[in-house]
Structure formats: structure tokens, C-alpha cells
Design goal:
The chain is an alpha+beta fold. It folds into three domains: about 5-70 and about 125-145, Ribosomal Protein S5, domain 2, CATH 3.30.230; about 75-120, no CATH class; about 150-270, Up-down Bundle (Four Helix Bundle (Hemerythrin (Met), subunit A)). It contains eight helices and six strands. α4 packs antiparallel against α6 (about 200-215) and α7 (about 225-245) packs antiparallel against α8 (about 250-270). The protein is rod-shaped and about 125 Å long. It starts with 6 loop residues before the first strand and ends with a helix.
Length: about 270
């Protein structure tokens, strides 16, 4: 099945007592490029997420973003020993400076490091929840890529049929030209003309490449790069046909075929 490279998927889950949303976006790219946006602590899952993406797709820029919709559980940690050290040093400093003001609790707790707010630690045990959200989001993304692929398939297939129609007109026109030249050229010049203008091999290869292209389109796994290579072969062969027979009518068919191939190649830039 042909798949596009544009898609989006989203799923929610819970970790560390907080609720998170995992989003996956994919855009066109020549190769596979994985971009991760994870909150602090979740970097322990980077390699696992990257490997999952690599197993599921071959091309595209894949952006995975995980954000908390409700914050994870937090706890207040009091550093008593540090508070005592602050108090002792402040008492000494107060005596040395001859200050009479008493040291208040609010003064101590406002000092750096006395009170810290800590979020629940992220551990490897949370991976099943992250993995489940990833699978759900990626399933939705793949569905979108398949829908885009169906649209591309229909468009490319219709262009191939048009291409075949134009190509089918060329051999009969080439035969007509050869007949006309046979009437106007001498017996010495005619063989050279027929040899230089023979397009049977090119037409045969064009038909083969079109048939091969159509088969590849229907395969379970379709490679955009492979289809683009076949398109380049189509371009090369039709250019040769145009060069061998610079006839107005054939040139018209060649231009139309080249235009269709170019449009097909543009679509293939969106194929995985």
C-alpha cells in the first residue's frame, strides 16, 4: 500500500501522578529524521522512542512531543541541616555587626536551598504507559499517511493511463513517417534514416517501465525512491524518442508525456 508522509496522531496517558499528551507529526523529507521534544526526566526514553519510529516508517521528518496537561505530583523537601547552618552563621554575623534584630523563620526559609519543590522522579517503570500512548498516536498518524497515499495512488494511476494513451499514438505515427520518407528518400539514404529513427526499443522499454511502475504501486510496501527512479527511466526513454523523431505530432505527444512524468515525480516526493 502506498503511504504519504504527512500525518498527525495524539494520545493521552498518566505518569508520575500527572496527565500527559503525546503528539506525533510527520512531514515530507528525503530521509528519516526523528525530532523529540520531551520534558525533563523523560530523556531516558529517547532511544526507545527513536527505535520505535525507525521500525514503523522509512521516510519523513517525525516530531514526537510529550507535554503534561496536568503537572506530575510534587513534594516539598526541607533541608534542615542547611537551615541550621544558615541560622548559626546569621547569629554569628549578627553579633559581629552588633545587630539586635532577631532572626525570623521566614528569613531562613527564603534562603537558597532550604526549601525545594521536587517532582516525582521519572523511572523506566513508566515506559509501558509512554509506549501505549505512542502506539495509539502512531496508529492515528499511519491512518492519515495511508489516506494521503490513496489520494496519491489515484492521481498517479490516472496520469499513467493518460501517458499510456499518448504513447500508444506514437508507433503508428512513426510508421506513417517511415512510409512517407520511403517515397521521398533515395534507396541509399532510406536505410540510414530508418536505422536512426527506429524507436521500437524505446517504446518497448517505456511500456515495460509503465507496467513495472503500476505493479510497484500495488505492492504491500511501496518505496517512493524506487518509483522516482522508474520515473527517471521513463523520462530518459521519452527524451530519446523525441530526439530520434523530431516530428511535430510526435513532439506534441512527447511534451505531454514529459509533463505527466514531471507531475508524477512531484507527487512521488510525498510518498514514503
Amino acid at each position: 500500500m502506498i503511504r504519504g508522509m504527512t500525518g498527525f496522531g495524539q494520545a493521552a496517558g498518566e505518569a508520575s501522578g500527572g496527565r500527559f499528551v503525546l503528539e506525533i507529526k510527520s512531514l515530507n523529507h528525503k530521509f528519516l529524521d526523528v525530532v523529540l521534544h520531551l520534558p525533563p526526566g523523560f530523556n531516558i526514553f529517547e532511544s526507545r522512542i527513536t527505535k520505535l519510529v525507525q521500525k514503523k516508517v522509512r521516510r519523513g521528518r517525525i516530531t514526537v512531543a510529550l507535554n503534561f496537561s496536568s503537572p506530575p505530583k510534587q513534594s516539598i523537601v526541607l533541608n534542615k541541616s542547611l537551615a541550621q547552618d544558615y541560622y548559626k552563621n546569621l547569629k554569628v554575623l549578627s553579633r559581629q555587626l552588633g545587630l539586635s534584630d532577631s532572626i525570623k523563620l521566614s528569613d531562613i526559609v527564603s534562603l537558597s536551598g532550604v526549601i525545594e519543590i521536587q517532582s516525582a522522579k521519572i523511572s523506566a517503570d513508566m515506559w509501558p504507559k509512554v509506549n501505549a500512548a505512542f502506539d495509539a498516536a502512531f496508529h492515528a498518524l499511519i491512518k492519515m499517511r495511508e489516506q494521503e497515499g490513496l489520494s496519491i495512488y489515484q492521481d498517479v494511476n490516472s496520469k499513467l493511463q493518460l501517458l499510456q494513451g499518448f504513447l500508444s499514438q506514437i508507433p503508428s505515427r512513426a510508421k506513417f513517417i517511415a512510409t512517407q520518407k520511403g517515397k521521398s528518400l533515395s534507396q541509399d539514404d532510406l536505410p540510414l534514416f530508418l536505422r536512426n529513427s527506429d524507436i521500437n526499443e524505446e517504446v518497448s522499454r517505456l511500456k515495460y517501465h509503465i507496467n513495472n511502475f503500476q505493479k510497484k504501486l500495488k505492492m504491500p510496501v511501496v518505496s517512493g525512491k524506487e518509483l522516482d527512479f522508474i520515473s527517471q527511466e521513463l523520462q530518459r526513454e521519452i527524451n530519446t524518442v523525441g530526439a530520434k523523431l523530431p516530428d511535430t505530432q510526435i513532439t506534441s505527444y512527447v511534451i505531454k508525456i514529459k509533463d505527466l512524468i514531471e507531475k508524477i515525480r512531484e507527487q512521488l516526493q510525498n510518498v514514503e
